[in-house]
Amino acid sequence: MKQKNMKAGVEIGFWGVRGSIPSHSFKNLRYGGHTACVSLHYKGSWFICDAGTGIRELGEKLARIKEPISLFLSHLHWDHVFGLPFFKPLYQKKRKIILAGPSIGRRSFKALLSKIMHPPYFPIGPVAWNSNVEWKSMESGSQKLGKVRISTRPVKHSDKTLGFEFTFPGGVRVIYVADQELSLKDIGFARWIKGADVLIHDAQYDKKEYAKHKGWGHSSFETLLEVAMKAGVKKLVLSHHDPNATDALLEKRLSWCIRRARLCKNPIKIFIGKEGTTLVV
Ligand SMILES: [Zn+2]
Ligand SMILES: [Zn+2]
Predict the structure, then answer these.
(1) What's the rounded Cα separation, in Å, for the pair 153 and 122?
(2) How far, in Å, from the CA of 75 to the mean position of ligand 2?
(3) How far away, in angstroms, is 265 Cα from ligand 2 center?
(4) What pTM, to 2 d.p., does this model score?
(5) What domains, with CATH codes, occur in the chain?
(6) Could you tell me the distance, in angstroms and rounded to a whole number, from the CA of residue 239 to the centre of ligand 1?
(7) Are strands 277-280 and 96-102 parallel, antiparallel or unpaired?
(8) Cα–Cα distance for residue pair 17/52, rounded to 1 Å
(9) What is the pLDDT of residues 179-228, one digit of tens each?
């Protein structure tokens, strides 16, 4: 997935696209086994979604680049925070990092995250970070960081989870929804993603698998495609692949989606989230 566009402004990097557990295997080398981490690079600023195991490699890169980092965690399930203690910039003196995620009730995001990054669960936690971290507890709402607007919205998952919408100058909209059990009846969600330039969304199951996993908090790729097509999404990235989804299976799903979109005469472009690739919009 490498697209070049002369008006390019936002570079979307895929560092981890797997759901639930890191799952490298010879059967999925092409798409990768690291868990959720996506970066948006715009005019010298880094906006990162989730800190799954994929964030470690991104951290190696960012440790050498002195550009501002804002890191947003969709929720606190292990596959979305595993990589955080291995994110090098957190240990760099004077490095400014915004670290944002959901609060739950009266418990702040900082309190929730500090609890799991603490002995005996993990030997080091935020007290070992030398960087200058600005903690933010997020609810649904909207805020501006520089010229980029970030809007958050609760999505349907097994614990409190936020979806993120990034609106860049010129109107480019990128929406990231890590984990969600999507329904065709969710009018509010369809309205939110209407006309998005890029939607990166959980597509863990197919319809048959979904029927066996109702209530687990994840979507079938068929339902996701229908919702995205109806909402006029321009580019759809299937992500949060099941640990057992092989390269061959993911490519079969992609072919199905392309055929379906063609049949519906819908101009949507569909991609399978692939570790180590960049999409430019
Ligand atoms: Zn997940
Ligand atoms: Zn989750």
Answers:
(1) 30
(2) 7
(3) 33
(4) 0.96
(5) 10-280 (3.60.15.10)
(6) 10
(7) unpaired
(8) 9
(9) 999 999 999 999 999 999 999 999 999 999 999 999 999 999 999 999 99
